[in-house]
Amino acid sequence: MDQHADQRLAGLSAWVNHQLARLDLYKGPSLSLETVSGDASFRRYFRCRYPVEAPVKGQMSSLICVDAPPDKENNPVFIKVDDGFAAAGVPVPRILATDLEQGFMLLSDMGDLLLKQVLNEHTAEHFFGEAFRILLDIMAADFSQDPLPPYDSALLQREMELFRDWFCGTFLQLDLNAAEHQLLTDVFRYLEQLALAQKQVPVHRDYHTRNLMVLEDRSLGVIDFQDAVFGPITYDVLSLLRDETFATWDQQLVKRWVLEFAVALRDKGVSQANDQRLWQDFNAIGAQRHLKVAGIFARLRYRDQKSGYLEHTPQSLQYVLMEIRALQAMGPDCLKDFDRWLRERVVPALAKHFPQVEHLIEAVPEAGF
Hints:
Blueprint: H1 3-22, E1 34-38, E2 44-52, E3 59-67, H2 75-87, E4 95-99, E5 104-108, H3 115-118, H4 124-140, H5 153-171, H6 178-197, E6 200-203, E7 212-214, E8 220-222, E9 229-232, H7 235-241, H8 251-267, H9 275-302, H10 313-327, H11 333-351, H12 356-362
Antiparallel strand pairs: 1-2, 2-3, 3-5, 4-5, 6-9, 7-8
Helix pairs in contact: 5-6, 5-9, 6-9, 6-11, 7-9, 8-9, 9-10, 10-11, 10-12, 11-12
């Protein structure tokens, strides 16, 4: 830990102990903080355990302490989204104290058990059912007084450009010619159009198995929502069911879950899209997201020196190929050209780093309707 991080941790520790006393939770000797995790951002999380007298003397309780440097993280947005989601019934951490000037927050503790750790073919029906019910509440959250940023053309394009710049350029070192650049531009433009044509709702934007906590009653809690936007209705469902860092589900099962969710959307009056349209939208936003993710994984490695994400790139590319193929029947010719270009140019370059990508590409699942 560098000196600056040490100083921030010392400041956070002093602030947390003061807040515990202010909230009348604990007033004894100073308590230490345990590291919980860092993530792909500049935030760090710690746990503070403190004794409580009731219901059993000597029992311990805990809170989560957040170090989110204000020059790197938009903490007011975190608070806004937490408040908006909580008001809609979304199970998010309660905010007990904040210091926006220092970038410190004190939150209720949802434990350590990630959905990723317990999700399998036996538990999926229960937990995805829980996750879908929560998504309906997220979509119903009211931000009319202080709107979420839109998932607009500029943001969609900026995200897909990460694929061109960081994945193709910095990572794979591909020297693209003018025709290849134009192909990417045409595909990005088409995916943008499909995303903007979808019903727009509040979107968590990182709704996957590492941001859903399994609580003691087997319900779920939601974390890491500070990047929420107003965007495509299928985005969060896609993030959950085609998580590039989790085992791939059978696509017929994925389709059944998506279409069951489509029924729930229609029943709630959220969207009247028919099954075929929603499945198309699901694949379209999947292609957009997985192109972005491949670029982000490369950027994390080469800009931020965080190498653990790059190993998931082959899965991201398999998803892109599956989703582009699912869109081809109703889409422009550039999709077929893009499919061929990925196989001829990108797969061989990626196979130099990850030989297993060639097996994954051979086994791209069918995702047509």
